[in-house]
Design brief:
Elements (H helix, E strand, L loop, with lengths): L6 H6 L9 E2 L10 H13 L9 H21 L7 E4 L2 H11 L9 E5 L7 H10 L2 E5 L2 E4 L2 E6 L2 H5 L6 E7 L11 H14 L6 E5 L11 H4 L3 E5 L9 E5 L1 H4 L17 E2 L6 H6 L3 H6 L7 H23 L2 H6 L1 E4 L11 E6 L7 H11 L2 E2 L1 E3 L4 H6 L10 E5 L6 H15 L1
Parallel strand pairs: 1-14, 2-11, 3-4, 3-7, 7-8, 8-9
Antiparallel strand pairs: 2-10, 5-6, 9-10, 12-13, 13-16, 15-16
The chain binds pyridoxal-5'-phosphate.
Amino acid sequence: MAHVLDVEYARSQFPALKSGFIFADNAGGSQITQRSIDLIVDYLTNTNVQLGADYSVSVTSTTRVFGAAEEARQLFNADTTDEIVFGSSSTANLDNLARGLENTINEGDEFIITGEHEANCGPWKKLAARRGAVIKYWHSTPTNPNNPYSLSLKLEELLALISAKTRIVAFTATSNLLGSVVPVQEITKAVRAEAAAKGAPKVEVSIDCVAYAPHRRMDVKAWDVDYCVFSFYKVYSPHVSAMYVRAPALASVTSIVHHFLAPEYAYKLQPGGPGYETVYGTKAALPYLLSLTPANDLAATFEAIAAHETKLVTALLSYLTAPEQAARGLRVVGVEEPGPTRLPTISFVVAGDRPMRSKDVVKVFDERGGIGIRWGHFYAYTLSTQLPPPADKDDGVVRISLVHYNTVAEVEKIISIFKEIFA
Ligand SMILES: Cc1ncc(COP(=O)(O)O)c(C=O)c1O
């Protein structure tokens, strides 16, 4: 039986949605559930003390905060909570990871990265500079010869980059700009086979799931990856990041902060990391997701989310790719066809002989009010500077990013504003 999303139920869980404002910048950060807000308030009201002391309030506080690793474990489908590390952001988690791997990197080792969000580029580029390693880019390339912006990652182009020196392959499960689901399991399998055939002694795979986790199910075991990261503020909770570090990899990652690897901790809290109350607030993400279908199961939840999101994507992409919009110079940045692997994170530029700046398109939405979308490079510097002219790197693209609590009626409202812009 197909699992169907009850969108009204989903919306009722978010106090911000009662305002009627159309939140269409969810790839920048989604709204937070009442349940998550309640957990944070309850923590601050009743158990806001330092962890690890023997007095009763601290014991309760410690249990509450350490318990949050179990929800993250289930969201990743990791084996144990020992494999979960919390950090203030995915950027910080990945940078800490790259520093922790430093002693395992030799001069000439090769890192293959996607030019996507800087969080998944910067840490690897800095690590390469510190250790004399080499960066190779797995770039997105067009899928439609008539649209140079119709970018997606192609497996064969990645495999061509692999050599006996490949040490790390780090890619996004979904780009926060292009919005396509990358088949992580298939890619990781092919990478490992190619690396083995070419004689690479040790290849580790790291996945950035920040733009993926709100939409589709993560499965680090089925994917066979070594590291994986996502941020709860995209998954209906406060800004905290969880990182998966596969158990055997824990042995070779040097502790760069005093709790990174301490085995006595049920999970690892990094100094300078998130507040305990926000870690506690993340516990609401899993129950919320499970509550979205009667099956009480993540696979069912994400099946229902995928079906609903596909309706949103189909409505929006059908408008944006229609011949009138194409003639006006509108070019979707990313895959143009709707379908279950196309997420409702939809970017575009207005090029052609009557180009419009992304900033000016968004200005119309701002002037009408009531809808939040934005323009820019979205920290995907490498990708946005790779875009063909006339996309201006300082102007970037327009991005409309929806999640399962957005409705087809909201998409229709967005389309009505486009009609004014292009009238
Ligand atoms: C794909 C992707 N990776 C990484 C990040 C960075 O996450 P954080 O803000 O938690 O550092 C983002 C944030 O938008 C993102 O979209």
